[in-house]
Predict the structure of Amidohydrolase family protein.
Amino acid sequence: MQQQHFDLLLKGAMLIGVGPHHDSMARGVIGIRDKRIAWVGEEAPAGATATREMSLGGRIVSPGFINMHYHAGLNFVRGIAPDLGFAPSYTPGLPQASQLRPDEAAALSQLGALEALKAGCTTLVDSFVEADAIAAGMAELGGRLFLSPRLNDVDFAYVLAGKRRFDAERAARMLDSAEAFITRWQGSADGRVHTHLTAHAPDTCSPDFLGAIAALARRHDLKISTHLAQSQDEVDWVQARYACTPVGLLDSLGLLGVDLLAGHCIHVDENDLALIAASATQVVHIPLGNAVSGRFAPTNAMRAKAVALSLATDTMHGDMIEAMRWALAIGRIQQGCVSDDWQPADVLKMATRNGARALGMADQLGSISVGQLADLAIIDTRQAHLTPCIDALGTLVHNGTGRDVEHVIVAGELVVENHRSLRVDEAAVLARAKAATHAVWSRCEPALRPLPEAAFS
């Protein structure tokens, strides 16, 4: 029998998310060849050789996390926006993403993508302003991306004043720009960059614009992301304007379905849940982002109706390990107990396999399986807060953080090693993001400059 040769051989780690049933292995070996996982077992195949071997005793290897709803560049309001009650785009008293210049959006988005990648997020579904300007810097890091421009035909200046005003000319410009973005970026960076379309929300996109976004997505066979039922204000405004719920509005426009990635879904009723379940709409659960504003999505009711659930961090941080912990805890708060059907294995699936399914890539991503792309997060448990590590998955979900991720592999390539990016100068990334934050806050009215100069040094 011919001896196997691997590009990279990972030996001696605890493995989680293995195979179609997402099993765990107390000690395993992963062989990587030509960007893909070519071997998974308790031992390496007899006589196997490798270009590089990594001995990973005391580490956990997980499928790379798939962050299904992220705005990498919104970190310029980190530490402030969560205490003002709601999403930054709806919050007076904050500088707005629409005020960012292209180079500022690029600097901030690269920082956000770097943070997420170092926390083991190998795939990011991201939407933001100045999408053309941010794509190259995010791709440079080596992660897998689903990128979209932020699409809304409302003027956010009016939204901040509690009103809505839609602009047909703005909608037409955005659609043209979005199609050009798709043409320019789809399949770039050696296939790591994908595109999708983000219809911002039912209260910031007119029905005509939503329909046009859906038509463009169908033409290019793309997923659509949106914020759905994320606030009571959104529900009340849509009800008053269209005499239905936001979920009902999207259903009437033909947007519900397996290609819709619906973020939040907090304020939904029984009829909404029935529509979501029947249409196979993908709900993206954002547990920490919701909880910091005092709300949570009814995930137990969703699971009872077999709604497809994946996981995301949204804004201010990119730590999917923390998101798993919050998803587990909030589900148990809703149940009022610990149950056999809501365990760390369930939230790991939300953070990996379910996201891959929602993106139409279940045959490529989401588990440690032979034939899948080698997108992996390697977590170092040789630390006080992760010792003893009796059960790898339970220890990771209950005690781990993104800062425990030691190495990250995307398509078989080490892109983070020993907690550091191998592709960019991290100090330079941080410096550019600080400068961009200083610039956008400096353009605010004096009353909206709460940060000391030292914050940017």
